[in-house]
Write a structure and sequence with these properties.
With 235 residues, the chain is α/β, with parallel strands linked by helices. The protein has two domains: 105 residues, Elongation Factor Tu (Ef-tu), domain 3; 108 residues, Nucleotide-binding domain of ferredoxin-NADP reductase (FNR) module (Rossmann fold, 3-Layer(aba) Sandwich). The chain contains six helices and twelve strands. The strands form two sheets. Strands 4-3-7-1-2-6-5 form a seven-stranded antiparallel beta sheet, with helices on both faces. Strand 8, helix 3 and strand 9 form a beta-alpha-beta unit. The chain is globular and about 50 Å long. It starts with a helix and ends in an 8-residue tail after the last strand.
Length: 235
């Protein structure tokens, strides 16, 4: 039986959560799920590509996702969620089914992609793919190149193709020097390139250090660590 505190927290959460329903759930490979959400509470919402939402997992537990799209007229949004570990977020991604209720907090600001223009390079990992899809909704952001590290590069390439991101380089997790080498090679004109850097906190730090060591400065850098080994609460 739920404790009085849990029931109180759930009741309070209902006051600020947006009620939605999982309309469609599509498994993309072993680790990714595309989740289409709908609901009256999603209508009339001001959404900026790169913004975040938090999905209520019960009690005080939330997990953060980057919507890939939002239609405020139809009252729909879409998540591309990665089964990343053994926490409550991964458990939800593995079990969510059409018809399930979903409570959303947000959207709120995270990385504002609405002002991104010109040549752009996205660097990250599996948790960054949804952001890359959202960036594709900003017409002025083309051309975009993408460099990802992934636990299963082959499976990730298939997922990227399924979501329309076929212009991407994928390296194995742990090959950070390879990732930065590809990035430095692509930054042949850094003064005119925007770098969008997300994902593992350790990789974000590694890339920043490599850019400093090479004395390479993109015209603009948007960076945010989505997660870190052994830590929770990053979003």
């Amino acid at each position: 039986m739920a404790s009085l505190l849990d029931r109180t927290v759930d009741l309070a959460s209902q006051l600020w959560l947006r009620d939605a329903t999982a309309a469609e759930v599509e498994r993309l490979g072993p680790s990714f799920t595309r989740i289409a959400l709908e609901g009256e509470a999603l209508r009339g919402v001001s959404w900026t590509p790169g913004a975040k939402v938090q999905v209520h997992m019960g009690g005080l537990t939330y997990r953060t996702y980057t919507p890939t799209a939002w239609d405020p007229d139809a009252g729909t949004t879409e998540l591309l969620a990665c089964d990343h570990g053994d926490g409550p977020g991964s458990a939800w991604v593995r079990t969510v089914a059409p018809g399930d209720p979903v409570g959303l907090f947000g959207p709120r600001g995270s990385l504002g992609l609405d002002k991104v223009s010109g040549r752009t390079i996205v660097v990250g990992d599996e948790t960054s793919i949804a952001l890359a899809v959202a960036l594709g909704t900003v017409a002025a952001a083309e051309p975009v190149e993408r460099i990802f590290e992934a636990t299963d590069p082959d499976a990730t390439v298939e997922v990227l193709a399924a979501v329309g991101l076929d212009r991407a380089t994928v390296v194995p997790v742990g090959a950070r020097d390879d990732l930065t080498a590809v990035l430095l090679d692509r930054l042949d004109a850094p003064g005119s390139t925007t770098l969008v850097l997300t994902g593992d906190q350790a990789t974000v730090k590694h890339v920043r250090a490599a850019l400093r060591a090479a004395d390479v400065r993109p015209a603009r850098t948007l960076a945010k660590a989505y997660w870190a080994e052994g830590r929770t609460g990053l979003d």
